TrEMBL record:
InterPro entries: Epimerase_deHydtase, NAD(P)-bd_dom_sf, UDP_G4E. It holds the Pfam family Epimerase. Belongs to the NAD(P)-dependent epimerase/dehydratase family. Homodimer. Residues 5-255 form the NAD-dependent epimerase/dehydratase domain. GO terms for molecular function: UDP-glucose 4-epimerase activity. It comes from Parvularcula dongshanensis. Its EC number is 5.1.3.2. Its cofactor is NAD(+). GO terms for biological process: galactose catabolic process via UDP-galactose, Leloir pathway. This is UDP-glucose 4-epimerase.
Length: 331
């Protein structure tokens, strides 16, 4: 019998890519999403979309009873770092507390496994940009990162006590869009570098800002480990199959283990169009870490995962194609 997977936030950027990856693999899907930042058209054909709040425990209980998913991939949540600094209650409520309710319902329903979207924002950034292994010190700079770290702790305790298997996936910087153009990053006011630079490259924005060129990094701009969302989605399918076959808990960084500076990203986007982007040097953005690069030993030791899109230009090209598609839809 085909396994059913519940995907919370499956209409969102990363969740919809993971949903398509699961659909391509033949899983039956139920997506629970309130469409607060998600896009209904990004949900794979054939997946059942339940409109609602993941914090609504009665609704979650009903979905679990009706569909009996073998596992849940939990993407739903709030993701804007500066907003979390201004409104921490929202982040602890919608990320941490909502996930506590979800965990309670998963235990009640006897669901086998849960995958959770965590983040590199849980780590204490290193000044030297050295790769961060999963056991590196955790000192989140924002309530967003803290809300994710608290959720990780809850998952471990609940998993241990009640036999809920768990894969905690700490994403580094996710970028790009589905190469088949089925989904992409669709939030109108997204703040992510590759999305913004792609919008400038396709003429949807006049200019962009580069936040800080005086960091203690090789070219003075922040360094990040950018991972193509399609490779990340594939890692989810493999992590799902890993925890279903090997009950227990695993925490894995998701990145390529290579840092790129903001200037390098901008140059990669420029190479896609052979045109200079209009970039303004601006002050540092509060809360930005100088460098965040993943140590990816564990994910490679654990999963048979071979990234296929490890290329900044490819990320930028797919993001640009998606921006053009979104613009055409708006016309
Ligand atoms: N984008 C990144 O670079 C990044 C990096 C690290 C971790 N993450 C994590 O990955 C997950 C997905 O991020 P994303 O970039 O796809 O964001 P997104 O905003 O595109 O997706 C979130 C989805 O969840 C839905 N949602 C939000 N709150 C909900 C609620 N209470 N009930 C039901 N649905 C709800 C939204 O409508 C949306 O479809 C988040 O948990 C985020 O913290 C993202
Ligand atoms: O218009 C822009 C946008 C970004 N940047 C810079 O580009 C780098 C990357 O910024 P992003 O906003 O793309 O990504 P962040 O590293 O801030 O954060 C992302 O990755 C984190 C993990 O590393 C968290 O998970 C978070 O949710 C996710 O948004 C930063 O130095 C930022 O200052 C610019 O210079 N100009």
């Amino acid at each position: 019998m085909t396994d059913t997977i519940l995907i919370t936030g499956g209409a969102g950027y990363i969740g919809s890519h993971a949903a398509w990856a699961c659909a391509d693999r033949g899983y039956k899907l139920v997506v629970l999403d309130d469409l607060s930042t998600g896009r209904e058209a990004s949900v794979p054909d054939g997946a059942e979309l339940v409109l609602g709040d993941v914090a609504d425990e009665a609704l979650v209980a009903r979905v679990l009873k009706d569909h009996k998913p073998r596992a849940v991939m939990h993407f739903a949540g709030r993701i804007v770092v500066p907003e979390s600094v201004a409104d921490p209650i929202k982040y602890y409520r919608q990320n941490t507390c909502a996930t506590l309710g979800l965990l309670a319902q998963l235990v009640e329903a006897g669901t086998e496994a849960m995958l959770f979207s965590s983040t590199a924002a849980v780590y204490e950034p290193r000044e030297d940009g050295a790769p961060l292994a999963e056991d590196a010190p955790k000192v989140p700079l924002s309530p967003y990162g803290q809300s994710k770290l608290m959720t990780e702790a809850m998952m471990r305790d609940v998993g241990r006590a009640h036999g809920l298997s768990a894969a905690i996936l700490r994403y580094f910087n996710v970028a790009g869009a589905d190469p088949e153009g089925r989904t992409g990053q669709s939030t109108p006011d997204a703040t992510h570098l590759i999305k913004i630079a792609s919008q400038v490259a396709v003429g949807q924005r006049d200019k962009m800002q580069l936040f800080g060129d005086d960091y203690p990094t090789p070219d003075g701009t922040c360094v990040r480990d950018y991972i193509h969302v399609t490779d990340l989605a594939e890692a989810h399918v493999l992590a799902l199959e890993h925890v279903l076959a090997n009950p227990g808990q695993v925490t894995m960084n998701c990145g390529y283990g290579r840092g790129s500076s903001v200037k390098e990203v901008i140059r990669a986007v420029e190479r896609c169009t052979n045109e200079k982007l209009n970039v303004e040097i601006a002050p540092r953005r509060p809360g930005d870490a100088p460098a965040l690069v993943a140590d990816v030993s564990r994910i490679h030791d654990t999963l048979d995962w071979t990234p296929k899109h490890d290329d900044l230009e490819e990320m930028a090209r797919s993001a640009m194609a998606w921006e053009r598609k979104l613009a055409a839809e708006r016309r």
